[in-house]
Amino acid sequence: MMFFVGAILTICVQAFYDFVIRGDGVFDPVGERRFLVDVRPRVCYLVTGWLLGRWRRVWWVFWWGVRMRPEDLRPGRGVITVLAVGVGLIWFDWRMEFRYYGFLRRAYSNVKRKVTAISQSFLRICCGGLQLLPFPIKKSAEQYRHRHEPSLQPGEIRLLRLKHWVPFLGVRGVLCPAKIGDKPLYEAISYTWGTSKDQREVTINGKRFTTSISTYDALYGRSSMFRSRVVWIDYICIDQSNDIEKGSQVKMMTNIYENATRVVVWLGKPLSARLAISVLNEMANLPSNVDSYRRYEHLTSSVQWIAMADFFNLLWFTRVWIVQEVTVAKEVLFICGGMAFTWDMLRNWVEIFRDPQMSGLLGLTKNSQKAKRNISNFNSIVTAQRRFRITAPYRKSLETFRTADAIMKALNRSDPSLGSKAGEPSMMDNITAVLMPLSLPFLLTDFGDFDSTDPRDKIFAFAGLATDEANPAFAPDYSKPVEDVYRDTAMYLLRNKDPFCVISCAGIGSKRNLKLPSWVPDWTSPPTGAPFTHPSYFDDFSPDMRASACGKTKASVHFDNKTPDILGLDGIVVDEIAFAGKPFDYSAEDGEGFVVDEVGNKFWPSEFIDNYIWYEEAHNLAQNHASKYGTDYAAIEDAFWRTLIGDQTPFKRPAPDILYKDYTQWVELSKYNDKIAKEILAKERKSLPTDEGYWQTVQDTATWGTALGTCASMRKFAVTKGGYMAVLPTMAEVGDVVSVVCGCRYPLLLRRKGGSRGYDGEPCPAYELVGECYVHGIMDGEMMNAETSVERLLIV
Description:
By secondary structure, the protein is of the alpha+beta class. Among the domains are: about 1-100, no CATH class; about 105-135; about 145-240, no CATH class; about 395-435, no CATH class; about 525-585 and about 715-795, no CATH class; about 585-710, no CATH class. About 45% of the residues lie in helices and about 15% in strands. About 30% of the residues are buried.
């Protein structure tokens, strides 16, 4: 009777807990299965404990368990068996996660800490006594630790065969080499290593091997009681102490994930995962984003909505390695908090927040700005995956591939129905994939926000994915310092077809963490503003879409083997910065100072005020000092608004005149927002306007706002000595000089560097690169013609 009461109580408690944390979410069959899995060990615990309290029944249980007759059980063997079960139960009780009774967890933690300290002291005494023995111990502890075999042969990888899961034995496996060309069957695991502070041990080839807690959890989650499973996981399958092997295996990483039967993404065991996934499933099942918005517009402070933001804040979404791990995968399975979902499900969830209204709702949640960036980065991965699959057969010969016939074949290969649907968005997506392949400059530019534990992995993570991977200069080498890796990569890119893509990420105009030449990008701290020069093959088909300050000149890049830190560029210095304003911070971050009004709108009043101050300062500089465009107010105003957006939109250059109307609306809106923000801070107003006219104006200026954010965000407005308006990097200064370099579409801002020496070691004038800039009036080759005499500019 006790068994049934205990089991029922356990199930009721778990069911109540499951109902509370699920809230009003939709029915989740995966979650209910997880509920049953959670109940099972507790029921077994109660049953076994009850049986141990009823000695007459114990023999009956063991008889069924081991197929043994009662008369065969000797008294000594029975006592030993009972003791073993008792010790096992104590251990299980110790390891058990009490999800409801926090005081029990604390009590067990205290007891465990004391017992551990006593055990360690006892072991020290024993080990000290063993040293006094007259005979040697046969094996030391180190001999029981797993060591990787000698380096793998070319084309070989290690695979880990996980043994059947057995209670109390932890993770056990066997490492064995395999030829990647033989197409072995295995799962590749994608996860985050976590910190080295918490470690666990697994058994590899019968010996102990120390791993991170994340690695252990991922392997434990893939272990099965019913069958063994073959997996590839980098922490164990690569000898992390062997830099040569790491380099060769990283080079093969794309093939490893591409040939896996599927990629399993282990997202850990966050407590809020079930809540987040329930909400996301519900939103995905609603007819439209409008319905999602109406349902959740007043629930952005609920625990479900916060859990969803926490889900997108998981560290996995920030890893640079995931770009290739999921881009090349045949199938992707995600596991989070014991719940599984597919790639298509996650992609649909992310697609929800591409809607401006839903993205705005997410922005009202605590810690949501990082989540929004992660969602944006994930969209970039979706695009990269599409490009990879379309161009995969042609990755080694993209230059000969981009013909009209080959493009249409690639489009039809991706989706046969697309060949007759020219002009539709899906068709444009495919054309973009063809014209913008996964080159190294593209990958470094689009995925610069992703993080890595080793700074060198910001480069090496794309070693196998990039279409220009065949160049031997781009081979992963973990014996090199990070500074040498970054410099060699920059030198390799500067010798490429479009060398100045790398320049868009370089310069001292933004924060840098490493001591590098100014022309070498610090990929540990990418520039805050969007690059002007983007690696795009659209330029080959629509030259009118691009600026060309260099005219028709060709790039001329010079290096000297004796002084690899000096970059030589042919060009001219054309002007100098005379006046510069403050940086334009167009986007708010999580932090103090935000206000949630009575309607539920979340905004930063200081942002409204600062944006209008920035506009007024820039406008005054233009009207008072920009003499190059005449003295007429209208002419200066026309040049001013075009300068703010780089005189282009995503699809047209120069910007159409109709945008002037959007500009004037934006100015009036900014002025009005400034007034509203001051009134709210002074407690004279309680909310943003609720009338449709206000929000219609916000919507009407969206195109202008996007163009403004792309060009001016995290940059300064300035005026040169020659009277030109300019947009400069964040840390530009008065006195920096504007240069036009052969082959470089955008002017480069330079800073004079005293005490520099040239290739021959002699003192000579040199510059530091501040960054690329926009100067209105010199963007179409006005400074470069047939008679222009260029000089060698030395960049250090």
